[in-house]
Amino acid sequence: MNNFNLTEINAELRDKSPEEVIRWAIELQKKTILTTSFSPNAAVMLHQLVKVDRRIPVVWIDSGYNTRDTYNVATQLTEELQLNLSSYAPLMTTARRDALMGIPTLEDEALHKEFTRQVKLEPFSRALAEHQPEIWLTGIRKDETAFRETLDIVSWDSRGILKVAPIFYWSDQQVDQYMDDNKLPSCQRYFDPTKVEDKRECGLHTSI
């Protein structure tokens, strides 16, 4: 896959539907995963995936800091869409971490980096080691963060995985409309302790 011309591929996929992009990725016949956070509107990608192939593993990094609403929506979507879900949690319990460090602010850069490693990056490393994906389907969109603006529908992750973002160019309005049209549940009370601020990366897409 290293011989892929990403410019040509992205031009080819630019006007394709998310379902068509997912089908393109799966037809490459490589080990594939989809990641989800079960955050608001995460159901869009999950619903698109099961229309093509519900056997694809869905990887969820459960930081241990999710809200009751998130867990309820995750359970509902897993059951209704019959997701092939694999969940990965930190090695240290949330209670123990809260006692030792709490949730660090960005002012304490070193501690926040270690916190992010514990609750997101280390579990994700275990997920990658188990599934060994060559293709990573993701619901990221261009206008979400400054880093994502530098990407495209198809890009190379720093780990050497081909990252495919079927709804990369979708607007908020398109996402909302899809959620409404398909009557998909959305988590309204969501919390990601690694982001701290809106439009900040949690680390999964930027870590090496």
From TrEMBL:
<dbReference type="Pfam" id="PF01507">
    <property type="entry name" value="PAPS_reduct"/>
</dbReference>
<protein>
    <submittedName>
        <fullName>Phosphoadenosine phosphosulfate reductase</fullName>
        <ecNumber>1.8.4.8</ecNumber>
    </submittedName>
</protein>
<keyword id="KW-0560">Oxidoreductase</keyword>
<dbReference type="GO" id="GO:0004604">
    <property type="term" value="F:phosphoadenylyl-sulfate reductase (thioredoxin) activity"/>
</dbReference>
<dbReference type="InterPro" id="IPR002500">
    <property type="entry name" value="PAPS_reduct_dom"/>
</dbReference>
<feature type="domain" description="Phosphoadenosine phosphosulphate reductase">
    <location>
        <begin position="33"/>
        <end position="190"/>
    </location>
</feature>
<comment type="similarity">
    <text>Belongs to the PAPS reductase family. CysH subfamily.</text>
</comment>
<comment type="pathway">
    <text>Sulfur metabolism; hydrogen sulfide biosynthesis; sulfite from sulfate.</text>
</comment>
<dbReference type="InterPro" id="IPR014729">
    <property type="entry name" value="Rossmann-like_a/b/a_fold"/>
</dbReference>
